[in-house]
Amino acid sequence: MNPCRRIKMQGASMKNRIEGDNILIIGAGVGGLSAGILLLLLGYRVTIVEKNHLPGGLMRSYVRRGIDCPVGVHYVGALGDDEPLGKMFQALGISVEDLFFRMGGRGIVDRYLFDDFVFDLPAGLDAYEENLRRACPADGKALDILMKNMRETARRMKEPSFILNQGDPFQNMDQFRPMGELLDELGASPRLRAILAVPCQLIGVGLGECPVIFHHMVLAGYLLSSWRPKSGGNRLADVFIDRFTSLGGRLMLGAGVQKIEVAGRKVKGVLLENGEDLPADAIVAAIHPRVIAGLLAEADLRATLRERILSLQETEGVVVVHAGVDASAHLVPDHNTYRLHHNRHGVIEDGTFYQLRHAGNGVNLLSAITHSAYNDWKSWEKTITGRRGAAYEEKKQLIADEVLGRAEDVFGPFKNLRILDVFTPLTVRDYVNCPRGACYGLLRSAGQLMKIASVSRLSVGGLFSAGQNTVAPGLLGCILGSFQVAAKIAGSERYAACFPQLL
Ligand SMILES: Cc1cc2nc3c(=O)[nH]c(=O)nc-3n(C[C@H](O)[C@H](O)[C@H](O)COP(=O)(O)OP(=O)(O)OC[C@H]3O[C@@H](n4cnc5c(N)ncnc54)[C@H](O)[C@@H]3O)c2cc1C
Description:
The protein is of the alpha/beta class. The protein has 3 domains: 3-76 and 231-313 and 443-502, FAD/NAD(P)-binding domain, CATH 3.50.50; 84-100 and 131-227, no CATH class; 314-432. The protein has 18 helices and 20 strands. Flavin-adenine dinucleotide binds next to helix 2, strand 15, helix 15 and helix 17.
C-alpha cells in the first residue's frame, strides 16, 4: 500500500488540520501545478482551476511566426541530482534531463558587460571565487568573508532541512539584513558591489535592500549548476500538466475564481466567474496575495491583514523583446549576456539581459529583457491586451528599437532581424492576473520580509498560499513553496513517509 495513503488521516497539526481530502488549487502556474502533483502523491483529491484557456502561467511560452518565445523561464539553478531543485524534480517525478541542458560547458554561464570591465560568471564556486579575486584584487579580505558565507549557503541548500523545513526555510540563518549594508561594513569596492548586485536583479530587488540570504541563495543556486530549457516553456508546462493529470488530478480551464467562500472562519469552496460553485475542504491559492484578498469577503479577512496586503510593495516590471536573427550570422553562445551600467558607487542604474537560442529553420531567437515601471504604462492601465491602440504599439516599437540597437554593441550588426513580439508589464498583468505586472511578485526587501511572512498566514481555516509570493520567486522559489504547503497540509509524518528521498 502507498505509505502516503496508509497514514492518510493522521497528518497535519491541529492548526492546519483539514477535514476531508478534497483540495482545490487556484492557478495553474508552476506553483499551483507543483502543489497539485505533491498533494496527489500524498493521496488527496485535487482540482486546479485556472482562468486562462492554456495552463502553465508564466512558465508557458507562446509562438510567433513559428518560433517559441519564452515568458518566465530563461535559465534556472540548482537542478543537479544532489541539489535542491533537482531533488524536488525527482520527488515530483519529472525528469530534469528531458527538459533542461546544463550550461557552462565552455566555462561561462553569464557574461556581465559593464562599460569599464567584463566579468564572467563561471560554473562552480571555486571558479567564481577565482574570477572575483582577479577582477577585484583590492577586495581580498571582503572576499574571504563573502565566499565563506556563500559556501555555507550552498552547503545548507543541499541539506534535507532546506526543503523539509515547514514555514520558514531560513530559520537557522541570521542573514536578513541588506546585502548593501554588509558590503558597506566590508568596505567593498564599487566594482565588487556592481558584480554582486546582479543576482539581486534576478529577484527584482536592489543590492541596497536585498536580504543577504536571498542574494546568497540565488547566486549559490546558479553556481551549484545552471540550466536552460531544452525545448521551451510550452513543453515545460505540458510535462507538469501531464504529470498532474496522469496522477488523477482534475484541471479546469477558463475557470476564473470570483470568490472564495468561507463559513465559520473555514473555507467551504469557490464561486467561479461562470456562476458554478465548487466545494473544497482546503484551498491552495497559487496567485497574487492582492488577488486572494480581493476574492475574500470583507468579513472573512481581518481588516489589518487586508490593509497590510494592499500596502505591500511589488518588484518592478519588465519589457521583453523577442526578435529573430540569421542563425548563420549569429551563433548561439552557451552563456547569457547582461549589458550593465553602474555609477561610481557600484550601483547598477540600467541593464538589459540578452539570451540567444536556437529557433530552427535558419533562425535564432534573441530575447531581451529590460526594466520598465508599471507607471510608465499608466495611460493604458484601463485597456486590455490586444486593444491598447496605436500609441501603445508605437511606444513598444520605440523601446524595442532602442534595446535592439544597444544589442548590436554586444552581438554585432544584425542580419535579417525581425521583431517577433514585445510585451510589457500590462501584458503580464492581464495574462496571469498579477495586479501591477511585476514579474517577480512582491518585493523581497529586507524591510518587507516580516510583512510578507505574515501575509502567507491568512487566518482563514483551510486556506493556504503558494506560488512565487509565498517563499521566493523563480522555479526554485515557487516549487520550494509548494513543498512547504504540501507539508503543512499533510503533516510532517505523512509528508516524510511519502518523500523519503528528501530525507
Ligand atoms: C519575463 C520574466 C522572466 C523570468 N525569468 C525567469 C527565469 O529565467 N528563471 C526563473 O526561475 N524564473 C523566472 N521568472 C519568474 C518565474 O516565471 C515566476 O516566478 C513563476 O513562473 C511564477 O509562477 P506562479 O505559479 O507563482 O505564478 P503564475 O505563473 O503567474 O501562475 C498563476 C496562475 O494563476 C492564474 N490565476 C490568477 N488569478 C486567477 C483566478 N482568479 N482564478 C483562476 N486562476 C487565476 C493565472 O492565470 C496563472 O496561470 C521570470 C518571470 C518573468 C515575467
